[in-house]
Design brief:
Blueprint (H helix, E strand, L loop, with lengths): L2 H8 L20 E7 L18 H7 L3 E7 L5 H10 L3 H4 L15 H5 L5 E6 L15 E3 L20 H8 L13 H5 L7 H15 L5 E6 L37 H16 L12 H36 L6 E7 L18 H4 E2 L1 E4 L8 E8 L3 H8 L14 H4 L9 E5 L8 E5 L4 E6 L5 E4 L17 H18 L11
Parallel strand pairs: 1-5, 1-6, 2-9, 3-4, 3-5
Antiparallel strand pairs: 2-7, 2-8, 6-8, 10-11, 11-12, 12-13
Helix pairs in contact: 8-10
Length: about 500
């Protein structure tokens, strides 16, 4: 495809005809459209400072939404973060402290907490909380896209069952390329745009919106992109200037960084060229630094294209929502399960306590409460999503949930907690950590048996100056450490960090 073709394809949803919005009727139960991605940083949208990425649909959604400028995940990796988004519990409370740990059957998700038989419910896309392709946890309709979690099916599940997307590809005449009659992620990512996972999810979501346009519904759509593989049909959509390396690349000057990060950095150098499936990029013994930079430059361009791919799919869904007259009665959420380092501090993917891995977009559109953009500068956490949605949906409050509704923040009411906390439980033998982020811009990351970090993000937004070991900042360390201790006591978090601030 030429660059012109790519631009035309990416902007296709905007060409749809405008449709008058229906008015919300008094007493009508609101719908919930929960759109989320995998591994998307906050700074991929214009409202977070990036006007280079071609994401016109999401930028337009942001212009009509409450924009949480500083939203953080509860743990910067897939399964733990998803467990919080779905249940409103911390990973250490629901048991999903690492990847591929299934959500316990008795732990309730939002539809189960609402427990209203009037609602039609559907989950579409990546789940990563166990039994990937099977309907569960209060969702009547289940559209799956991943074949590669067969080994994690629970006992009694049919291991020959494949994803909904698998059968979609077979109907198109494609033959599985992977072991055990599966389609690999690489294969799916190399399909034409209309056959990729994002387009398939948009198609299925639109069917659901049309079929249930006269009854209340809850629909979650989770896109795999821009998660690896770092390539797709829009790889050439952005130039290097439009998708540059992060400003803190190579970013290796952080004083006494956690030693574990060096292990991750070495792993990244071996993984990046193969992960982006770009044979021209191979680390060279004669110019390793130059080839490493070239690999990351390619990765960032491809990553931007994956964000555009999601944007196109979201455009189709939002058009259908509007065309069926449901926009004014539908709460829309857009967020991601964690971020992406993409070369910041010479790291990639997630699993660290730097901003790029923890800070995600968070848009909340409530058409019956606001019709213009509202910006919220205070730091917030995904732990508050479920309580917020319960209140918006008119459901019974759940005092047992640790989070609190954002409506108090929006209405100027006092909240119980104004600091944000982030967990890290390493299930692969690395050090555990806990992080606290203050309203005034300080971040303290305490590691168990490793170096810790303190950043003043107001003066150091790229997190290049670790102040933890500077005597002049011991009072800040103690202040934030006390906040972290209080949070651990309240949430029954038993991780011992004694000695981390000695």
């Amino acid at each position: 495809m030429t660059r012109r073709d790519l631009l035309r394809a990416a902007s296709a949803p905007l060409a749809a005809p405008a449709v008058l919005r229906a008015q919300r009727r008094a007493g009508e139960k609101p719908n919930l459209l929960f759109l989320w991605t995998d591994q998307q940083r906050a700074d991929t949208l214009a409202v977070y400072g990036n006007r280079r990425f071609r994401v016109p649909v999401l930028n337009r959604l942001a212009s009509e939404s409450i924009v949480f400028e500083r939203c953080y995940v509860t743990q910067p990796v897939c399964t733990p973060s998803r467990s919080t988004v779905m249940t409103g519990l911390w990973p250490h409370q629901n048991g999903c402290v690492g990847n591929n740990i299934p959500l316990r059957p008795e732990t309730k998700t939002l539809p189960e907490l609402i427990a209203d038989p009037d609602y039609r419910t559907a989950y579409m896309g990546k789940w990563h909380l166990g039994d990937e392709v099977f309907a569960q946890h209060g969702f009547e309709q289940w559209i799956s896209i991943e074949d590669n979690y067969i080994e994690y099916y629970s006992q009694g599940r049919d291991r020959k069952t494949r994803s909904s997307y698998h059968y979609f590809l077979e109907r198109l005449g494609y033959k599985p390329d992977g072991e055990n009659n599966t389609f690999s992620r690489n294969f799916a990512a190399r399909r034409p745009p209309e056959h990729c996972k994002s387009a398939f999810l948009a198609q299925e979501a639109c069917k659901f919106l049309y079929a249930h346009r006269r009854e209340p519904w809850i629909l979650y759509v989770n896109f795999l992109e821009p998660h690896p593989p770092y390539f797709g049909p829009f790889d050439e959509l952005h130039s290097s200037a439009e998708a540059p390396l992060p400003a803190n690349f190579p970013g290796l000057g952080v004083d006494r960084e956690p030693r574990h990060y060096d292990t991750l950095r070495a792993r990244a150098r071996n993984m990046v060229p193969t992960r982006i499936d770009w044979p021209e990029v191979k680390l060279s013994a004669t110019d390793p630094e130059g080839r490493w930079r070239e690999a990351l430059e390619r990765l960032n361009r491809n990553y931007a294209g994956l964000c555009s791919q999601v944007d196109q799919a979201v455009g189709r869904i939002l058009w259908t929502l509007e065309a069926t007259g449901q926009t004014d009665n539908t709460v829309i959420v857009f967020t991601s399960d964690h971020g992406e380092m993409a070369g910041a501090h010479s790291l990639f993917q997630k699993g660290v306590m730097y901003e790029e891995a923890m800070h995600v977009p968070m848009l909340l559109r409530i058409p019956f409460r606001q019709s213009r953009r509202i910006s919220v500068p205070a730091p917030v956490s995904h732990i508050d999503l479920v309580p917020t949605l319960l209140e918006l949906m008119g459901a019974k409050s759940r005092p047992e949930l640790p989070g609190e509704s954002w409506l108090a923040l929006l209405e100027g009411r006092k909240r119980r907690e104004d600091h944000v906390f982030v967990e890290w439980t390493d299930t692969e033998g690395g050090p555990h950590a806990r992080t606290v982020i203050s309203p005034d811009g300080w971040k303290l990351a305490l590691y168990q048996n490793d170096n810790s970090m303190l950043f003043d993000r107001r003066r150091d937004p790229l997190e290049m100056h670790n102040l933890f070991y500077q005597p002049a900042h011991r009072d800040q360390v103690r202040r934030l450490w006390r906040k972290l201790e209080e949070w651990q006591r309240r949430q029954k978090d038993t991780l011992s960090l004694e000695g981390s601030i000695a």
